[in-house]
Design a protein that fits this description.
Jelly Rolls; Immunoglobulin-like; seven-stranded antiparallel beta sheet; five-stranded antiparallel beta sheet; 31 strands
């Protein structure tokens, strides 16, 4: 091996991404320059599945809900790279048996979660499984074996992740690799280091359950893999291996195979999803998993118990049992909204409700009886509604359940893009004006208000738009106490419109619409992950005031120009985010923006995007939730908190950093949806300026806990500052299974892989191997049902 100078080595580490598996996210993948990321593989595969199940239109013009579902799945995939101690997550170290059992378990858990109507849990489980599927092709020699056998069509392994099948690795004594001719240099040499022993995968240093058994077993390889130096191997062997994770020969010894491995992994991703999950669930359940909208629904029929509660809730002067205390919110989540009816809920429960609504990108609409004694009881819910883009919906004495249901149904339009979301305080009968843009991508408009006696809408030329349903067939109006909702089903001509609110005091306004142009996501991210394999992941909690933050955003629809800006909730301009620019390299799913924000404001703010669409019309879109900056930074090892095993105790440390220039005392609590938290080690913490502290959250799901997601809220509230809150989307799962021999119908032995490949080549020559561009599964029909 030729020598690398120290300077050359350091330059490589500075200028190239560290790679131990397919790069997790597009940001760290340098937008494809260093390889096809897990994120891209997942998105490309799922878009083809959308086409198969939901039609061409769904694949080409996904809704906001579909976009978020895809982001949740790909995000869970990338998240797996924060854990490099468990080799079976990545099929490292010939962990074929354990990796196969993991894939079978995760498929079954995904099905159980989606059957329990838990879309978040199902997506997180599926995404994590897909990471393992994709790593099989980057870390094993399956691809190289196909090429050596002369395969004209690269075919995924037919048994990977299939229930009733088992993989058996080579014996620890079987040699699988020899030294590279030119080691890790960017010249020929390492692509011929495999021995013809059978299916193998590289060992990686630092995975305690899969230590490299001999120097003639393959290593993963790359500058950060120390396994090649075991057993007294000379330093010249450092970095040798077989991984195909990237297009950088410094980090992937089998760099020449990267593109084909990524292509094969993408096909295998599609096969795994359909073979193990979607072919076993209904079309409605597929729609839940992927976020597609299958049409109309009934609030009343879907949630009868909630309506019974609200029916009693609004019957005035009929008494409830005074001994009953509603300690939790009764919530209805439907369409794009969370509706809450509650009283006497502890502040921790209110905070959790807000966190869950924010996590789901829902506005939280708080439903309450319009009685004088309720004005103070519900102040916490009023704040939550305002912060999440919702309203306080008052039910008057003459309002019955049918009238309430009609009003809420109008609000619960699914997949509407937010255009303007404001709140403020005005004198009674004062008129407050706001301007906003209507563009031709909007198919309908929804205006909703609280604390408003009436409002008027004006054309760009100043003429009044008719909002009387009796005079305008396109206008549908509902009123409930001082709440008004107006749905316009035929949108007027594009231009700058004005809305005038006649206020009763505190007021809120939301303007949204059904549009093909929408802000699919805006999140503050940081480079994080297992050492040597970092990716862009959402920050834990709120951004820190006064500091800049890396931002990742997605916009769907056609536009020619656009820029982000921060505004107050009263719609006052704060600052434009000119450094957050379009990434022209990532074109597979919407328009991606990335860059660094200006210093985060001290007070809460809204995120807006303004621009010009492809027809030259001005448009505006908003992120519906307010951003609450903080003077304290939270962090935790997410890899430990993301998966909770039923019946098993898990303790997670949370780190608190006081970034303020003054000392502060913090009140601490943690709360979750399913009561798995059993202990928080501290309820109070004093930190000096710049000081760091730690507290532990102990959790134990019940032994019979249902598979699915559990939102865990961690709150650190400063006495002198707003503090910080963060949500962990944990997934509860049962104990992993060990497949009994009696249930295994197909065994795949590593030393028989070459014969398996030859058999598939023969099937292909005879036209029996059905795996063309539009073929998805081995013998399973793909159909919408």
């Amino acid at each position: 091996m030729g020598r690398l100078t120290t300077l050359h080595f350091l330059l490589c580490l500075v200028t190239l991404p560290h790679v131990l598996a397919f790069i997790p996210t597009d940001l760290k993948a340098a937008f494809g320059f260093f390889g096809t990321s897990h994120e891209t593989q997942t998105k490309n595969a799922i878009k083809l599945i959308w086409k198969a199940y939901f039609g061409e239109g769904a694949a080409n013009i996904p809704t906001a809900a579909m976009t978020r579902a895809l982001k949740e799945i790909s995000g869970a995939n990338a998240f797996v790279d924060e854990d490099q101690e468990k080799g079976e997550l990545h099929f490292d170290g010939e962990s074929f048996t354990e990796g196969q059992e993991r894939l079978v378990d995760f498929a079954n858990w995904t099905i159980e979660a989606v059957r329990n109507n838990d879309s978040i849990g199902a997506r997180k489980l599926l995404g994590q499984a897909l990471h393992t599927v994709q790593d099989f092709y980057a870390h094993s020699n399956y691809l190289e074996m196909q090429l050596a056998a002369g395969s004209k069509k690269l075919v995924p392994h037919p048994g990977l992740g299939i229930e009733g099948t088992m993989f058996h690795p080579l014996a620890k004594t079987v040699d699988t690799c020899k030294p590279c001719e030119n080691s890790i240099q960017c010249t020929e040499g390492c692509e011929k280091n495999l021995l013809p022993a059978g299916l193998t995968s590289g060992y990686y240093g630092g995975e305690p359950n899969y230590p490299k058994p001999s120097k003639f077993k393959c290593s993963h390889g790359g500058f950060l893999d120390t396994s090649s130096l075991l057993f007294g191997a000379p330093a010249v062997y450092f970095g040798q291996g077989i991984n195909k994770d990237s297009k950088s020969c410094k980090f992937s010894p089998h760099v020449d195979f990267h593109d084909r491995a990524a292509e094969l992994a993408t096909v295998a991703t599609r096969l795994y999803i359909i073979n193990t999950v979607t072919s076993k669930i209904t079309q409605q359940q597929r729609a839940l998993l992927f976020g597609t909208d299958l049409g109309a629904y009934s609030l009343w029929n879907d949630y009868p118990e909630w309506w019974d509660y609200v029916d009693d809730f609004i019957k005035l002067h009929k008494r409830e049992d005074p001994t009953i205390v509603h300690r939790r919110a009764t919530a209805l989540r439907k369409g794009w909204h969370t509706f809450v009816a509650a009283k006497n809920v502890h502040e921790h429960g209110v905070a959790l409700a807000r966190a869950v609504a924010r996590d789901k990108f829902h506005p939280l609409q708080f439903v309450r009886r319009d009685l004088p004694e309720n004005l103070t009881d519900y102040s916490g819910w009023k704040d939550v509604a305002t912060e999440t883009g919702g309203h306080v919906i008052k039910i008057g004495e003459n309002d019955d359940i049918e009238k309430t249901a009609d009003f809420l149904k109008m609000l619960s339009q699914p997949d509407f893009a937010e255009i303007l979301s404001v709140a403020g305080v005005a004198q009674k009968d004062a008129v407050v004006d706001f301007t906003f843009s209507i563009d031709s991508t909007l198919e309908s408009l929804l205006f909703s208000t609280s604390g408003v006696g009436s409002f008027e809408l004006f054309y760009p030329d100043g003429c009044r738009y008719p909002l009387d349903p009796s005079a305008n067939k396109y206008v549908h109006k509902r009123e409930l106490s001082d709440n008004i909702a107006v749905n316009i089903t035929s949108v007027p001509a594009p231009g700058a419109y004005k809305i005038s609110l006649r206020c009763n005091g505190d007021y809120t306004l939301s303007i949204s619409g059904n549009s093909s142009l929408f802000l699919a996501g805006f999140q503050f991210v940081e480079i994080r992950g297992r050492p040597g394999h970092e990716g862009a992941f959402p920050i834990f909690g709120s951004p820190v005031t006064g500091q800049s933050s890396l931002v990742e955003a997605y916009v769907h629809g056609n536009f020619t120009d656009g820029a982000f800006e921060f505004r107050t909730k009263g719609n006052e301009f704060i600052v434009e985010q000119s450094a957050i620019k379009v990434d022209t390299e990532v074109l597979h799913h919407g328009t991606r923006f990335e860059g660094e924000s200006t210093p985060i404001p001290t007070d809460e703010f809204m995120v807006y995007m303004k621009g010009v669409n492809d027809k030259g019309e001005e448009f505006q879109r908003a992120l519906i939730h307010m951003i609450s900056p903080s003077h304290v930074k939270l962090s935790l090892p997410k890899a430990e908190a993301a998966m909770l095993q039923a019946g098993k105790v898990a303790t997670v440390p949370v780190t608190v950093l006081n970034v303020a220039e003054f000392d502060d005392t913090y009140d601490i609590f943690a709360v979750d949806e399913k009561d798995v938290i059993t202990h928080v080690s501290q309820n109070q913490m004093l930190l000096k300026a710049g000081e760091t502290g730690t507290f532990d959250v102990t959790m134990q799901p019940a032994q019979d806990a249902v598979v699915g997601s559990n939102h865990i809220l961690v709150s650190v509230k400063g006495r002198r500052t707003r503090g910080n809150k963060a949500v962990v989307r944990a997934v509860i799962h049962p104990e992993p299974t060990v497949t009994p021999d009696s249930e295994i119908t197909q065994h795949y032995y590593a030393n028989e892989t070459e014969q398996l490949i030859l058999d598939m080549i023969e099937q292909d020559n005879q036209g029996k191997l059905l795996l063309g561009p539009d073929d998805f599964v081995w013998g399973v029909e793909v159909s919408a049902r």
